Amino acid sequence: MSTLKISNLHVSIEDKQILKGVNLIVKSGEVHAIMGPNGTGKSTLASALMGHPKYEVSEGEVFLDDENLLELEVDERARAGMFLAMQYPAEVPGVTNSDFMRSAMKAVNDGQPIPLFDFIGKYEKAAKELKMREDLPHRYLNEGFSGGEKKRNEILQLKMLKPKFAVLDEIDSGLDIDALRIVGENVNSMVSDQFGCILITHYQRILDHIKPTNVHIMIDGKIVLSGGQELIEKIDQNGYEWVKEELGIDFVETDNE
Description:
The protein is an alpha/beta fold. It has one domain: 3-Layer(aba) Sandwich (Rossmann fold), CATH 3.40.50. It is built from eight helices and twelve strands. The protein is globular. The protein starts with a strand and ends in a 10-residue tail after the last helix. It comes from Paracholeplasma vituli.
């Protein structure tokens, strides 16, 4: 059993403060959905947790068990058990999916090589569970992939690396109904006392497939409301205006996350 604890996290980008005191505790076996309008800081939280150099942490703490993540480099955070499924996965021409994946597995396992036979078996099994194309191992990383294929490829990496915690940043964007179900089933199958996740989304539809144990609403760089399924249903019916009115928050949506 592991715990990810975020305390009073303040994050800025180019001298503009985005996160203004985020507090969150996630335990393995839990799925925490973070919802909110555009420009509230959801993607900033995801990037800051993985150590993106563009984001400056000015205050607060993030601990994975007894390890201070803010003192670690990106690769060290991955080895500690963190994973980020990106909103916009990058294309890497010249590097095949299988070569990338095997190198990533070696890196998070302190340089221990993965036996090729074992790797192939696990890789093919995970790809089949995600119903991905058979030529996937030989394709260059995300090059020429559709939006949905890129998102499934992120979940393939998640299944292979088996981190303690994953931050899934809008993995539902670009997925059709069938792909959404497949991705949801695969993420659900991983949730256990060895794995928990933070799921960032705007919409209810992914939450029909990945059932959260906790739901949080983020507005203006802070988590302003927490609850369960009832919050999802209320947001689906009424949007976020009721949250602003109920809590007396004056906030205008932007594209800056």
